[in-house]
């Protein structure tokens, strides 16, 4: 479970982000999206929704049991990374803090639930794997929060 949530899912998002950087030049295909995504809000909102779906234990189970769901996981998380890459530079500091904080809060909450519940939430993983993943999610949430605060401070120190 830890390999699934703490390694594979972030790597899928990173692959989409990398693809957005690879396709960095404006392309006519992106014009409608970019027009709607003026401040990065559309892309980051859709990506956040996709992250929320893959925090649900039933979605993780289905991704292991169903080939179409596995491919949906690959597609949606790669697309989330692509949208983040297209939207991130457009975000104001306030929106960046809001969405990073929301993601960190979601990760911490799911991590605490995974650690404290006495029963398994995912059929395919043992309780010890669930608790270890929960601990990793909480550490990841704290790291994300610290990086966000550091970036906010760097933006403030660099001036307007």
Explain how this protein is built:
With 160 residues, this protein is mainly alpha-helical. It is 78% helix and 0% strand. It has seven helices and no strands. The protein starts with a helix and ends with a helix. The model has no long low-confidence stretch (mean pLDDT 90).
Summarize the structure.
With 160 residues, this protein is an all-alpha fold. Helix content is 78%, strand content 0%.
Reading the helices and strands in chain order gives HHHHHHH
Mean of pLDDT: 90
Figure out the total of helices: 7
Low-confidence stretches at least 5 residues in length (pLDDT < 50)?
A: none
How large is the share of residues in beta strands? Answer: under 5%
Give the helix level as a range of percent: over 70%
Multimerization status: single chain
Span of the ends, CA to CA? 43 Å
Largest sheet: none
Main attributes of the structure:
7 helices, mainly alpha, 160 residues
Topology:
Blueprint: H1 2-22, H2 31-36, H3 41-53, H4 57-65, H5 67-87, H6 93-116, H7 127-157
